[in-house]
Specification:
single chain; about 350 residues; alpha/beta; Hypothetical protein af1432; 2 domains; 5-stranded parallel sheet; 14 helices
């Protein structure tokens, strides 16, 4: 009987970067002992080009190279979102503590001094590759949840693109408020996934054209709980789950699901709440047409006056939207003028 063929797991890919061909061959042989695929580069620019074309799972990087040294290569890779999670081991003949500290500051994940112990290098490579596999798994989980969030939005043609727009607005507002980059990222992730729990809401409720009755309202108010519970098993989503669970809370405690009040509501959740309301008001829905921005602005300001929303947060967001509108209008005028100029020349 013929057995069904199985796809063998992909081998971890290791990039060895050194201007000495002997060192490249030696390190490559050590990595191949454990079954890793090995590629190499002779200098910094070649390494950066290879990483850009096909990011490896681990980089063994020499420091002393002509032109662009290992510190610069490491720093550049760690500053780019697409490659910052790729583990980098700096390998050098420089043994002083200052060089090790410079490597750590550049973002290196580990540091080995020549001559390198083969057993130690293999052990550290295995450890870093396990960590890389774990982070890849978490990224894959987020991709799945993001796809699910987009699918939920697509259930209603009126909300297509809603999660992307809310995430974009929320990130912009978080940056305007001067939040650290990590908090900006958490806010954006929470905004993108804020309606994830609607996967558990029946279409009869979610897509209802008229007002919801008490029972239907109770069902829809469970979606923040469902969304947070879906992500709770993943520890890296811990901060994101608080955004999802609390983005319908109000400052006076009249929101849901936990009736939090005031500063007990996480700032990221408050940001998503304000942005979500504005985006919903200015979008066409099954039960009403889109409202003009001026009307949405008035409603948000009224909610701030009733202590449902933070006034400073609402003002900051409305200022951001007004600036965006001015830039869009100016861009349209420039485009119009440029087109007119071309028409005159052609005429």
């Amino acid at each position: 009987m013929r057995m069904a063929s199985q796809t063998s797991p992909k081998k971890p890919r290791v990039l060895v970067v050194d201007d000495n061909p002997f060192i490249v061959e030696l390190l490559g042989d050590l990595m191949q002992v454990d079954g890793y695929e090995v590629v190499s580069a002779a200098d910094g620019p070649e390494a950066l080009a290879q990483v850009a074309a096909d990011p490896p799972d681990l980089i063994l990087l020499d420091i002393m190279m002509p032109g662009q040294d290992g510190y610069a290569v490491c720093r550049q890779l760690k500053q780019q979102p697409a490659t910052r999670l790729v583990p980098i081991v700096l390998i050098t003949s420089l043994g002083e503590e200052t060089h090790r500290l410079e490597g750590i500051e550049a973002g290196a994940d580990d540091f080995l001094t020549k001559p390198v112990s083969g057993a130690e290098l293999r052990a550290r490579a295995r450890s870093l590759l396990k960590l890389k596999a774990f982070t890849d798994e978490l990224e894959s989980a987020e991709v799945v949840f993001r796809a699910l969030a987009k699918t939920i939005a697509a259930r209603d043609r009126y909300t297509w693109g809603h999660c992307e727009r809310v995430a974009g607005f929320a990130a912009a507002l978080a940056k305007r408020l001067g939040l650290p980059q990590a908090e900006v990222q958490t806010t954006a992730r929470g905004a993108f996934l804020h309606d994830l729990g609607k996967v558990g809401v029946p279409d009869a409720v979610l897509l209802k054209a008229g007002p919801l009755d008490r029972e239907e309202r109770a069902v829809i108010e469970q979606h923040p709980v469902i969304g947070a519970d879906l992500l709770r098993p993943l520890k890296t989503f811990r901060e994101v789950t608080t955004v999802i669970r609390h983005h319908h809370e109000r400052l006076d405690g009249s929101g849901y699901p936990d009736h939090l009040a005031g500063d007990t509501i996480p700032l990221a959740a408050q940001i998503v709440s304000v942005v979500d309301i504005y985006e919903a008001l200015t979008s066409t829905r099954s039960y009403r047409p889109a409202l003009p921005p001026a009307e949405a602005k008035r409603i948000l300001q009224e909610e701030a006056a009733r202590r449902w929303r933070d006034r400073e947060l609402v003002d900051a967001f409305l200022g951001l939207r007004e600036n965006d509108s001015h830039r869009a209008a100016a861009s349209a005028r420039r485009s119009s003028g440029g087109e007119g100029g071309r028409q005159q020349v052609l005429g």
